[in-house]
Write a structure and sequence with these properties.
It contains 1 helix and 5 strands, in the order βββαββ. With about 80 residues, the chain is an alpha+beta fold. β2 and β3 (about 30-35) form a beta hairpin. It is globular, with a radius of gyration of 16 Å.
Length: about 80
Amino acid sequence: MWLKVIDYSLYWRIRNNKGEVWLTLENQSSAHEWLDTATEFNAIADLLRNEKPVYYETERGYLGCGWEPTGEGEKNESPFVLEH
């Protein structure tokens, strides 16, 4: 079942080079997943920080965001515009 992620917490265990993500879901349950690489850790962190809403699939452990239009890019928050 897909449930909306309400809160999250990320940890990186330096001693064994593993990551963890803890999720609080919309039904007040929680989920925990181990992350095997720094690449996985960074991808999960990016998804949780930058996408809204994020959902977790409780049976298979999938994490994903909702549909977005094709070509949607990140907004440039910089007040400076580079001209060519």
